[in-house]
Amino acid sequence: MSDTVLKQQLAERFREVNGDHPMTEADDAYVSAQFVCLEELCAAHGRDGDAVRRLMLGQRLPLPGYLRSDGAEMVPADLFALADVAGGVDQLEAWFTAHWADPLTGKAEWNAYLSGQYVCLHAVTPATIQRKDCLTTRIGASANEPDAGSAQWAEQLHALIDELDALEPAFTAYDRLRFDGPTSRDTCITALRVRFPRP
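User: That's the sequence. What structure does it adopt?
Assistant: Structure tokens below.
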């Protein structure tokens, strides 16, 4: 199968998952600063780009995080890191899902990982995924806590927000289109810093 055909298949799969939304110049600039071209990453790691595309299409490695407007497949610089830690692509799914006690949750997180949509984290690992889930849950529930509004409560809330802030990138307008609304940064960081200013 030719390089062009595999690229086309990967682009089609990407749009099935993310919808068909335009990338603006600002989106392209953001993505180019945060991610790397698949071809460049493969060249740097001595990997064959088509072989990696086949792994993505075969649901053994994540899809690209973005397709730039010029068609470049943009991936995180650490795309191969988890497979390396797991002992190879063949072991990756079992290694990844084992981080969750509930097999159904592990499988759901694996599918989310394969979608390439974990662009909400600087580093995508089971530990950072779990920590982000914990932080967003705690931040979301904070307004209903008995001591909400107290100085100690505000201090604890901002510590959680700051930790989430460190885990998450800025996002771009394209993300709000594909996720059909505000991002976790919008709701759990920006909005709450406005609603509950730091003491």
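The beta strands are 36-37, 66-67, 73-75.
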